[in-house]
Amino acid sequence: MRLLLVEDDKLLGQSMVSSLGHHGYTVDWVEKGTIVTSALKTDDFTAVILDLTLPDIDGLKVLRDIRKNGFKLPVMILTARDDIRDRVQGLDGGADDYLGKPFALEELLARLRVLIRRQSGCAEEIIQVGQLSLSLSKHIVLYNDQPLKLTGHEFKILTSLMTNAGRVLSKEQLQQSLHGWGEGSSDNAIEVHIHNLRRKAPDVIIKNIRGVGYVLQK
């Protein structure tokens, strides 16, 4: 799960990258709003965390540009501007959630999980696909009701496949769920992780659509 963080406070930005990374997210961080839409056009993100008070452009304008360009991914506003008018403008402008600063990390994580579940069409905390059950809050996967031992990268790939079950994800999209900007990976890394997932959960069907990508069958 890859997040785009738009935050001009360096200390807060660094802290959020570290904290969210510790909880299984890949986070790319920008400090200016004018590069957000170009970043979304270039890379594949699960959600955006957007501050409203930015040095170059108002965050509400960034939000409008995101929606005007047709991006439907969840956007969470995270700002010290906690006036009711700002909340209404943010939510009416296309934001999916609004969290004021200061905030508790636990609440931010919980709200992100809600947005991701909603995006995958699942209202419950547990995402179920066949014999697989995924808990975003506990960071575990059950296979036939037994804990599935996965590496960090295997968990991220399986999470991407489960939250997009039935939808083909390209190799590049899966790579982007693992690595942020400036982080490299070998060309065959995805194939290796998919092979390991198939070996650990042999009854789960992860199809390779030649020349397109991978899909987890519902």
TrEMBL record:
Domain (Response regulatory) ranges: 2-116
Matching SMART domains: REC, Trans_reg_C
Keyword annotations of the record: DNA-binding, Phosphoprotein
InterPro entries: CheY-like_superfamily (IPR011006), OmpR/PhoB-type_DNA-bd (IPR001867), Sig_transdc_resp-reg_receiver (IPR001789), WalR-like (IPR039420), WH-like_DNA-bd_sf (IPR036388)
Residue ranges for the DNA-binding region feature of this UniProt entry: 124-218
4-aspartylphosphate modified-residue sites: 51
Residues of the OmpR/PhoB-type domain: 124-218
Gene Ontology MF terms: DNA binding
PANTHER family linked: REGULATOR OF RPOS (PTHR48111), TRANSCRIPTIONAL REGULATORY PROTEIN BASR (PTHR48111:SF75)
Protein name: DNA-binding response regulator
